[in-house]
Amino acid sequence: MGVTTVTDVRPAPAGTDGGVLHTLFRTEQGGHEQVVLCQDRASGLKAVIAIHSTALGPALGGTRFHAYASEEEAVLDALNLSRGMSYKNALAGLDHGGGKAVIIGDPDLVKTEELLLAYGRFVASLGGRYVTACDVGTYVADMDVVARTNKWTTGRSPANGGAGDSSVLTAYGVFQGMRASAQHAWGDPTLRGRKVGIAGVGKVGHLLVEHLLQDGAEVVITDVRSDCVDRVRTAHPQVTAVADTEELIRTEGLDVYAPCALGGALSDESVPVLTATVVCGAANNQLAHPGVEKDLSDRGILYAPDYVVNAGGVIQVADELHGFDFDRCKTKAAKIFDTTLAIFARAKADGIPPAAAADRLAEQRMAEARRRA
């Protein structure tokens, strides 16, 4: 695995990189092309940019801003997320490989204009191998700042030549994946009369609520942020809120569970007690570890692979590079319905879980691109 360490001109304190670099070299993450460790002391920036693959084109993926418990945890998240972006972009039919960046720190406490500008300079240093966008903890206004120091930033505001909030089409795509899941599970592509539990009603989750209510679903929500719950309940008093995710996944009569927060939602602890028949949500890396997809299948739970159904946002930001057209993007995002059904059909034909079928299809496209290169 190629590793590039980027810091400012002053030497780092002795021993500060050892643990992170050890993580990079010992972790088997599917052959990342490049990992950049970014540090700018003047602004306090500490970040990781991971490029998994450029087989299909420049790596594309968002910037996550999160208070990681350790640098190793941040590196591992960047590695996992960037690999997922390669697969997501491949199945979305985009001419992009997979990359991801994480900025270490609580965005409510340490995010500044100076820090975002410094981060943009690191993106610029890659010369277009990595194209960034929004993710958890970053917003359109942040990308406008990042774009001031590089030309490989998407997710900008319309006033600055961008497409605006990509969560609109992310939510729309998840809804299309959920419709496909309903078609496969119950023979009808609608959530009307179904009970859907959403864990996380932030940027994407609250928009998914809108789609589901319009489709006639009964919606139950939870979020660690009470203000997010209050926003949904104020707009839609018919929506039920529960205390936490543990209560949500045990809800009686739950048809669909939609993880829409951070990853690892499907684990050895959650899968055995999950009451839903279908799992389809916006969160990245929902499977806590390999093997969970088989546990879901063994329980008769249909899992719509996260990187397939949440691709609406990346479809939007990729289009921004060529002159954004919302209707064109929405048409592409609507095809997530067909892609999801095709994955379920492949899984059934091959006798494997849908997650494995999705991986095979994505790997096939990337391998074909490498052969043509």
Automatic annotation (TrEMBL):
Keywords: Branched-chain amino acid catabolism, Cytoplasm, NAD, Nucleotide-binding, Oxidoreductase. NAD(+) binds at residues 200-205. The keyword Oxidoreductase applies. It comes from the Bacteria. It is found in: Cytoplasm. Residues 164-372 form the Glutamate/phenylalanine/leucine/valine/L-tryptophan dehydrogenase C-terminal domain. GO terms for biological process: L-valine catabolic process. Its main location: cytoplasm. It holds the Pfam family ELFV_dehydrog_N. It catalyses: L-valine + NAD(+) + H2O = 3-methyl-2-oxobutanoate + NH4(+) + NADH + H(+). Its EC number is 1.4.1.23. One of its GO terms (cellular component) is cytoplasm. It is an enzyme of class 1 (oxidoreductase). The active site is at residue 100. The keyword Amino-acid biosynthesis does not apply. GO terms for molecular function: nucleotide binding; valine dehydrogenase (NAD+) activity. SMART domains: ELFV_dehydrog (SM00839). Pathway: Amino-acid degradation; L-valine degradation. Homodimer. Belongs to the Glu/Leu/Phe/Val dehydrogenases family. This is Valine dehydrogenase. It comes from Streptomyces auratus AGR0001.
